[in-house]
Write a structure and sequence with these properties.
Elements lengths: L40 H7 L3 E9 L29 E12 L3 E5 H4 L2 E7 L5 E10 L4 E6 L8 E2 L10 E6 L7 E12 L8 E4 L11 E3 L4 E9 L10 E5 H14 L5 E2 L2 E5 L2 H6 L8 E6 L4 H4 L7 E5 L2 E2 L2 H10 L5 E8 L2 E8 L1 E2 L21 E3 L2 H4 L6 E6 L1 H6 L6 E5 L2 E2 L3 H10 L5 E8 L2 E8 L6
Parallel strand pairs: 7-12
Antiparallel strand pairs: 1-2, 1-4, 2-3, 3-6, 4-5, 5-6, 8-9, 8-11, 9-10, 10-13, 11-12, 12-13, 14-21, 15-16, 16-17, 17-18, 17-19, 19-20, 22-23, 23-24, 24-25, 24-26, 26-27
């Protein structure tokens, strides 16, 4: 998240008495109760075939480390595997959804930006390798591509109608529970968080690690947003979640599909909204404009003499608030000149700034999978001396390759290969040999008191 795939069935809204399409209704014109009769069942049936699980193999991250560029999109895409040393790989997961039947999938940028490998698990059970066509850390949007055609895809709202109090539902993979449905109401829109200019959808729809990247949709099944993050000190949902409006997401996608990246103007400053109390503190009679909180040394704003504590009142002669000013800068062509009206020391002045090009996020480089011992499916097993006196079985010290992708973790105890019980490495190896030439091997694992079969593909095998 800051994580977080048939036939289509679209239920006609039983409460839309107005003949105009719902998207054309103002918020005040809606029925007082927008909760759909029968819940979101029909909308879920429509969207579930297009929702996918995104599985990423990457270098292990320190869960306490704040990743540069994602100050407000903390990586909640999965739980790290315990006990791995520096340089080891881990498997994480998040959500995504198909927006084009030709294999284009939306996902969260924080889930894939440092990936070694990206895989997409479709609702029909297929697991396909995915390429990262492009990503944008600023909005936390990534576009993936899988080699498939005719995939079920979602229907996008254009433009979305998002009203506080309206009912919405989300589909995703929190904690690995695929196609989980949660529902709630829009708490606020637009909501701007400190340090961001994206108008977020705040809701009480429950999101948890693994939910990010999933669709947020209305009772008609139309997608209005992409789940992004939660507001929580513990990393677990406590009642406040945020989604990216689909209209803003698709602007990013259009840029990626055209050029492979998102081009934005930049002048090297960060601002925040100026409320009434801050306006009084800086000698202004009313709220409005953008308060400069950070200047990039050597940037265009720095060169033009703009300082921290300045208030930008207008952009090219048009009064604007914080979000419109930063969005206007981002939309400006590199090399063009912007005229800013700046308030400082109880007076206003005009400042001209030449627009530069903001940093462009590039897709992660394609990496060759490290060689793994295929004789044991890429598993490193603990020697008998280490496990003496422990319950019978073969213990996993580490997993790479297909075993890591399948979700086998350090500390798992293997007690059977397909239907053959194993207690020693020799028995494990013999059972693997007897399973040839099957492309998939089922390992019966014990995790604590829980027994579960996990299917592992042999390298080059097809499920």
């Amino acid at each position: 998240m800051a994580a977080l795939a048939g036939s289509f069935l679209l239920a006609m809204s039983s409460f839309a008495a107005d003949p105009r399409p719902p998207e054309q209704l103002a918020c005040g014109e809606q029925s007082a109760d927008r909760r759909p009769r029968g819940g979101f069942a029909a909308a879920v049936v429509r969207n579930a075939p297009a929702v996918v699980q995104v599985v990423v193999i990457r270098g292990a991250r320190d869960p306490m480390e704040e990743t540069e560029g994602f100050e407000f999109f903390q990586p909640l895409a999965g739980l790290p595997l315990p006990g791995y040393a520096d340089g080891a790989l881990e498997r994480t997961f998040s959500s995504g959804f198909v927006i084009d039947p030709k294999g284009y999938v939306l996902a969260s940028a924080h889930a894939v930006f440092d990936a070694h490998e990206v895989w997409v698990l479709l609702a029909d059970g297929r697991r396909l390798g995915a390429s990262v066509e492009g990503l944008d850390r600023r909005t936390d949007v990534a576009l993936l591509k899988v080699e498939a055609d005719g995939l079920p895809s979602v229907r996008l709202a254009a433009p979305p109608r998002i009203c506080p109090g309206a009912w919405l539902a989300a589909l995703g993979t929190p904690f690995g529970f695929e196609r989980t449905v949660t529902a709630g109401v829009v708490s606020a829109y637009p909501r701007f968080l400190p340090g961001t200019t994206m108008p977020l959808i705040q809701s009480d729809v429950a999101l948890n690690p693994g939910s990010s990247g999933g669709p947020l949709f209305n009772a008609d099944g139309t997608v209005v947003g992409m789940s992004s993050m939660i507001f929580s000190g513990s990393g677990i949902y406590i009642g406040v979640s945020f989604a990216l409006p689909i209209e803003e997401v698709m602007r990013v996608v259009d840029g990626i599909r055209k050029t492979g990246s998102v081009r934005r103007g930049d002048i090297g400053l960060k601002t925040q909204a100026l409320d009434r109390e801050l306006a009084l503190a800086f000698g202004l009679a009313e709220a409005g404009g953008a308060l400069v909180v950070r200047i990039e040394p050597g940037g265009a704003a720095d060169g033009a003499g703009i300082r921290r504590g300045d208030v930008v009142l207008s952009l090219d002669g048009m009064p604007a608030d914080h979000s419109r000013i930063e969005q206007g800068i981002a939309a400006a062509q590199p090399g063009s000149t912007l005229l800013l009206r700046v308030w400082r020391d109880q007076s206003a002045r005009q400042v001209r700034v030449t627009v530069g090009l903001a940093r462009q996020d590039m897709p992660p480089p394609q990496r060759k999978r490290p060689a793994a011992s295929q004789a044991r499916l890429g598993l490193a097993l603990a020697p008998a001396l280490v496990t003496a006196g422990m319950p019978a079985g073969v213990y996993v010290e580490g997993a790479t390759g297909e075993s890591l992708l399948a979700g086998i973790e350090r500390g798992d105890r293997i007690v059977a290969v397909n239907g053959t019980a194993v207690e020693t490495m020799a028995e494990f190896d013999a059972a693997l040999r007897s399973a040839n030439p099957r492309p998939v091997v089922a390992l019966l694992l014990m995790r604590g008191n829980v027994a579960v079969y996990v299917p592992v593909q042999r390298q080059g095998g097809q499920p």
